[in-house]
Every structure is written in structure tokens, then in C-alpha cells.
Specification:
single chain; alpha/beta; three-stranded mixed beta sheet; binds pyridoxal-5'-phosphate
Length: 420
């Protein structure tokens, strides 16, 4: 063994010992409720394809037409020669769907978070994030160089304290900027330090919702900006299925709306939606956008078709079907905590706690033909391993009934549905 492999395999052994070793499973079928893994059929309750669009003929045809007309690859970044018609159509379609001035698509949601946060903030600024936000936001917060503060999950008192601190810091900074501090002939342009709050609307691993109205009240009080990642909510909530912010009537107060194209929208990519100025700024400064080849035309065209489908009557039908399945599942399994005031969530975590036990529970479900992977550290905190169960509009009532039988055979205690 080469020294590098010796050292790395030692690390991998430690992961295995702690129940944290990860392996890829090859799926030999499309992303639907019925998948084939190593030739064996499973009912799949792990996908983020919430409206069943990933394998929809409308999206597939759009992708194929884009391949025929624009080829397999974009050939360059958007700012060089890769800004093809399907990318422009996608950006315009996202903006119209979200009801905003402008939007910009990225090759992934991860790239959207990283590019945007790093473009907006630097070491003069403060970024305040919920403890449970997605890794893409955590990574961006670290990389951007701003002071990073984390508030307890959905804890508005904690957030208020942090915003108070950030506000005092900003006031001190501004009062320290006095004209005589710059030498003769030196023009110092110092902008106001920025404070950005970032949260998700529907949390990816817990399936609960952020109190967006309270967040908005706080960010207005302290003059902060708000970025809301609707990765899991886009397509599911609000009259036009734009997301939770629309459902609560507060979308126009969110400075930066983020989403992905690879979950309910059925394709791949990420986006930022907001003002024309914000989008122009990102085109000029988001490094993951500038220094990365434009997405394949097929991906952009499929995403555009997915958004059109979601905006149509078919989108409403699928959302209702999904919500009916969620209600069926919740009423048949005592392990979930129905929180009556909350919107229906397609993400239903079964908290196990111990990593190895979670892997065993996932194995016991696979033995019954049900695929739900164990989610472990570092995706969730240590000791908070869980089965992350998701429903999609492509499931059927009989599939959910099968899932219920399997869950009841697992004999998880009712406490296992609680995540706190
Ligand atoms: C999936 C996800 C992302 C990243 O989106 P990709 O398009 O998969 O890169 C960002 N934020 C949240 C909350 C997500 O769940």
C-alpha cells in the first residue's frame, strides 16, 4: 500500500467503527417510487422529487429537444460564450414563476449558495445562520470571511440577541470612520457593514418550517438582509407554488430567495431570485457563476419545462396528491408528531439517535423492500441519526400502505418520530 492509501484507509476504518462509513448504491432505473438496486426492486421513500417530475415525459422531451438544437454541452461559462438560449429562457421562467424582477440560475443549488453569499459579504460583515441550515450555506458562511454567528434552530430570542450585537458592532464601526483618519490624498470608501440572516423555509433533514414572519420582523427591526433557501419548498406551497414565503405573503420582503431545480422541479441546478440589481450584481461577482461552465442545455431546458408544469393545473393536482399521501401516512403511524398549525411536509424524519442503530433500521426496511437511507453525521448532528422518509406525488395510497406495514414491523417507539 502507498503511504497515502495507508493513511487514508486508517481514517476510513475509524468511520466504519463509528457507523459513519458511506457507500454508493448503484440504482439501475429512473428516479421513481420503484427503483432497482443491484437488480432488486425497492419502493423508494428517499427522493426529493416531490412532485414526480424527474422522470416526466414533458421534461424528458424538453431535454431531448435542447440536445438536438444546442448539443450536449454548453462549451464555456455564461460570461464567455456559453450563455445559450435555454439558459436565458430558464432565468426568465424562474423570475416569472417567483414573481420577481429577475433570477439567475446556477449549475447547482450548492453553487448558488456559495457564489451568492461570498459575493455579498466579506470580513467587514456579519452572517447569521440557523443551526440546522444546509452544508452549502455553512460552507459559504465560512468561506466568505464574514463574522459567523449561529442561532438556535428557529430560536427567535437567540437571533434577536445576535442581531442586537451585530447592530452595536455596526454602530461602533460607523462612528469610528472619521474623515481625519484617512491620510492626505487617500480616498477611503468604506461601505456600511452588512448583516445577512440565512435560513431555510422547510428544513431539509427535520421537515419543519422556519417562522418567516418573525424572521422578517426581526430583520426589519435591525436593518439586516434576509436570504431564504426554499430548496425543499419550491413547487409545494403558496397559491402559485412558489414556496413558503409566498404562502405566508412575505416573499416581497425577502431580499434573496434561493431554490434548487433538482428537487420538486425535477431537473438539476440552483437559482437566486430577487431584484434586477441583485441579479446584475451576482452576474458580476458570484465566482461559482463566473468561473464555471454553463449547465448542459438539456438540464436548463428540463428545468424550464418543470417550472411550466408546476405552474399549470397539473402542478396543483400533483401538490394535492402529495398532501393527501402525507395525511394518509401521518394518520397511520403514531411515530410522527403532527403539529396542527404547520403546513404538510413531505419530509418525515424518524429519529433513531445512534448511528449504527439507524443503519440497522434502514437495513431492516430494505429487507422488506422499502428503501429509506439512514442519515448520519455530518449531515445531521452526532447522536441524531435518523431515517429520512420522503413522499412524492408519484407514490400511491397502496405504496404508502405498504410503507406503514413495514414501519409498524420495525417496532420503533413513538418517540422515534420526534426530532428534538
Ligand atoms: C439540496 C439542497 C441544496 C443544494 O442544492 P443542489 O442543487 O442539490 O446542489 C441547498 N440547500 C438545501 C436546503 C438543500 O436541501
Amino acid at each position: 500500500m502507498k503511504p497515502i492509501d495507508e493513511e487514508l484507509s486508517w481514517d476510513l476504518t475509524r468511520l466504519s467503527e463509528n457507523g459513519l462509513y458511506r457507500e454508493l448504491r448503484r440504482v439501475d432505473s429512473a428516479q421513481t417510487p420503484h427503483i432497482q438496486i443491484h437488480g432488486e426492486p425497492f419502493l423508494n421513500f428517499s427522493s426529493n422529487d416531490y412532485l414526480g417530475l424527474a422522470n416526466d415525459p414533458l421534461l424528458k422531451v424538453a431535454a431531448m429537444k435542447a440536445v438536438e438544437k444546442y448539443g450536449a454541452g454548453a462549451g464555456a461559462s455564461r460570461l464567455i460564450s456559453g450563455s445559450l438560449a435555454p439558459h436565458h429562457e430558464l432565468d426568465e421562467t424562474i423570475a416569472a414563476f417567483k414573481g420577481v424582477e429577475a433570477a439567475l440560475s446556477f449549475s447547482t443549488g450548492y453553487a448558488a449558495a456559495l457564489g451568492t453569499i461570498c459575493a455579498l459579504l466579506d470580513k467587514r460583515d456579519v452572517i447569521v445562520i440557523d443551526r440546522l441550515v444546509h452544508a452549502s450555506i455553512v460552507d459559504a458562511a465560512r468561506l466568505c470571511g464574514a463574522k459567523l454567528r449561529v442561532f438556535g434552530h428557529n430560536d427567535m430570542n437567540d437571533l434577536e440577541d445576535i442581531l442586537g450585537w451585530a447592530d452595536r458592532r455596526r454602530t461602533e464601526f460607523l462612528s469610528s470612520v472619521c474623515p481625519s483618519s484617512s491620510g492626505p490624498g487617500v480616498q477611503v470608501i468604506r461601505r456600511r457593514p452588512r448583516v445577512l440572516i440565512v435560513t431555510e423555509s422547510l428544513f431539509s433533514m427535520d421537515g419543519d418550517f422556519a417562522p418567516l414572519c418573525d424572521l422578517i420582523a426581526l430583520k426589519e427591526k435591525f436593518g439586516a438582509w434576509l436570504m431564504v433557501d426554499e430548496a425543499h419548498a419550491t413547487g409545494l406551497y403558496g397559491a402559485h407554488r412558489r414556496g413558503v414565503a409566498e404562502g405566508l405573503g412575505v416573499a416581497s420582503q425577502v431580499e434573496i430567495q434561493m431554490g434548487t431545480l433538482g428537487k420538486a422541479l425535477g431537473a438539476s441546478g440552483g437559482f437566486i431570485a430577487g431584484s434586477r440589481t441583485l441579479i446584475d450584481y451576482l452576474v458580476n461577482s458570484a465566482r461559482t457563476f463566473i468561473f464555471s461552465t454553463a449547465p448542459a442545455p438539456a438540464a436548463a431546458a428540463a428545468a424550464t419545462a418543470g417550472i411550466h408544469l408546476i405552474q399549470s393545473q397539473e402542478g396543483e393536482i400533483r401538490r394535492e396528491r402529495l398532501f393527501d399521501l402525507i395525511a394518509q401516512l401521518k394518520s397511520g403511524w403514531a411515530g410522527f408528531e403532527p403539529k396542527p398549525s404547520e403546513l404538510p411536509s413531505p419530509i418525515l424524519p424518524l429519529l433513531i439517535g445512534d448511528e449504527t442503530e439507524a443503519v440497522q433500521a434502514a437495513g431492516a426496511l430494505r429487507a422488506q423492500g422499502i428503501f429509506i437511507p439512514a442519515i448520519r453525521y455530518p449531515t445531521v448532528a452526532r447522536g441524531k441519526a435518523r431515517l429520512r422518509l420522503t413522499l412524492t406525488a408519484a407514490h400511491t395510497p397502496s405504496g404508502v400502505a405498504r410503507l406503514l406495514v413495514a414501519l409498524n414491523n420495525l417496532k420503533l417507539l413513538p418517540e422515534h418520530g420526534k426530532t428534538d
